[in-house]
Design goal:
This protein has two domains: about 130 residues, Nucleotidyltransferase, domain 5, CATH 3.30.420.40; about 200 residues, Hexokinase, domain 1. It is about 35% helix and about 20% strand. The protein is built from twelve helices and 16 strands. The strands form three sheets. Strands 1, 2, 3, 4, 5, 9 and 16 form a seven-stranded mixed β-sheet that branches. Helix 3 packs across helix 12 and helix 5 packs across helix 7. The chain is globular.
C-alpha cells in the first residue's frame, strides 16, 4: 500500500459471508484483535445496523479505518454481496460510521492472505504430501459454504500477491455413466451446471435430489446438514440413527469427488506447488467422510500430469476465522503484500 494511503489505527476488520458476519478491531499494529460475537446477516437490514449491534454497543474504541472482506464483485460504487442482501456503499458508510478509510476485498482474497499465517494445528492434510514450509510458492484456496469461493496467493519480488477470482462458477461435467444419469436431474442455471451448483450447501441438496430422481425414490431430506449427517453415519458406523441413506451417501461422495476435481483443476491452472487449501465450514463438518472419500484420488487424476498432482499437498483449513486472520496480517504489515487498492479504497 502506498505511503499516502497507510491505514490509520484502530482498524476494524470484517468478514461478511452469506450467513454470518464477523468483526474484530486491531487497536495498534501487532496488537491482538478485540473479538466480537458473530451476527447473522439475515437479522439485520444492512451492515450499518449490524455494526451498531455487534461492535459499537460493545466497546468505546472507535475505529478510524475499515477493511471489509465479502463475497461479491467490487465496483467504483462499492460492493453488492452475492449471497446476502447487504450492500456496502462507501461514501454513506464512511459518513454514518465516522470512519476515515474503507478498503474492500473479496472474501477469498482475504482467505488467501491468511495462508502464510496458518500453523500446523490450523489444518488437516488429505493425502501424504505436506505443504512446503520455507519455499514460498503459489498457493490456492477454495471453499464450499453458502457459495463456492476461490482465491490464489502468488509470490513475486519478495511479496505476496492475493488474487481474487470467480472460479466457483466454472463448468462441471460427468465423468462416468452413473454421473451422466445423475447429471440429467441436476437443476441447471442458464443452461449449465457450475461448480457452485454442486459445491455449496444448496448444491449438496441439488445433488441429493438428483440422486433420488435417478433412483426413482422420494427424497427424505431437504437440508444439507441432514443429508451430511445421514451420509456420515455410514462412514462412522454409528448406530441408533436408523439405516444409512444410500442417496445421501452417494450425494456426499459426489460432492467430495467433485471438490477434488475442481481443486485439482485450480492447482493445474495456477501451478500451486505451495499447496491447495480447502476452507469454508462444510469441509470441516464432513472431515471424517472427506478423509475416506475419493477426494484425493480425484485431485490426482489429471493425466498426463498425475505425477505432478501427487506432489501437491491438499489441506483442510480448520482455523476458525481464516479471512480475519488474513485481514489482520495485511493490516499489521501491508508492506509484505501487493494489494490492488484502485477503486477499492475510499477516504474522507
Amino acid at each position: 500500500m502506498p505511503a499516502d494511503t497507510d491505514l490509520q489505527f484502530p482498524v476494524l476488520i470484517g468478514d461478511i459471508g452469506g450467513t454470518n458476519a464477523r468483526f474484530q478491531i486491531i487497536e495498534e499494529p501487532l496488537h491482538q484483535p478485540l473479538v466480537f460475537d458473530p451476527v447473522r446477516t439475515a437479522d439485520f437490514a444492512n451492515i450499518e445496523q449490524a455494526l451498531e449491534c455487534a461492535v459499537t454497543k460493545k466497546t468505546g474504541l472507535h475505529p478510524r479505518s475499515v477493511i471489509m472482506a465479502a463475497a461479491g464483485p467490487i465496483t467504483h460504487n462499492g460492493l453488492n454481496l452475492t449471497n446476502c442482501h447487504w450492500n456496502i456503499i462507501p461514501e454513506p458508510f464512511l459518513q454514518t460510521g465516522g470512519f476515515e478509510q474503507l478498503l474492500l476485498m473479496n472474501d477469498f482474497e482475504a482467505q488467501a492472505l491468511s495462508l502464510p499465517e496458518l500453523n500446523d494445528c490450523d489444518g488437516v492434510q488429505l493425502g501424504d504430501v505436506l505443504p512446503p514450509n520455507d519455499d514460498p510458492m503459489t498457493k490456492a484456496v477454495l471453499g464450499p459454504g453458502t457459495g463456492l469461493g476461490v482465491g490464489l496467493l502468488v509470490r513475486a519480488g519478495g511479496r505476496w500477491i492475493p488474487v481474487a477470482g470467480e472460479g466457483g462458477h466454472v463448468d462441471l461435467g460427468p465423468r462416468n455413466e452413473r454421473e451422466v444419469e445423475v447429471w440429467k436431474h441436476l437443476v441447471p442455471l442458464d443452461g449449465r451446471i457450475s461448480g457452485e451448483q454442486v459445491l455449496c450447501g444448496d448444491g449438496l441438496v441439488n445433488v441429493y435430489r438428483a440422486c433420488c430422481a435417478t433412483d426413482g425414490v422420494e427424497p427424505e431430506y431437504d437440508q444439507a446438514a441432514d443429508i451430511s449427517v445421514a451420509a456420515m453415519h455410514h462412514v462412522l458406523n454409528e448406530t441408533g440413527h436408523g439405516q444409512p441413506n444410500a442417496q445421501a451417501v452417494e450425494a456426499l461422495s459426489l460432492f467430495c469427488v467433485t471438490l477434488g476435481r475442481i481443486a485439482g483443476d485450480l492447482a493445474l491452472t495456477s501451478m500451486a506447488r505451495g499447496g491447495v487449501y480447502i476452507g469454508g465450514g462444510i469441509a470441516q463438518k464432513i472431515l471424517p467422510f472427506l478423509k475416506e472419500s475419493g477426494f484425493r484420488g480425484a485431485f490426482e487424476d489429471k493425466a498426463p500430469h498425475s505425477a505432478l498432482m501427487r506432489s501437491i499437498a491438499t489441506t483442510i483449513v480448520t482455523h476458525p476465522l481464516p479471512a480475519l486472520l488474513g485481514l489482520a496480517a495485511y493490516a499489521n504489515a501491508p508492506q509484505d503484500f501487493v494489494v490492488d487498492i484502485e477503486h477499492r479504497l475510499w477516504q474522507r
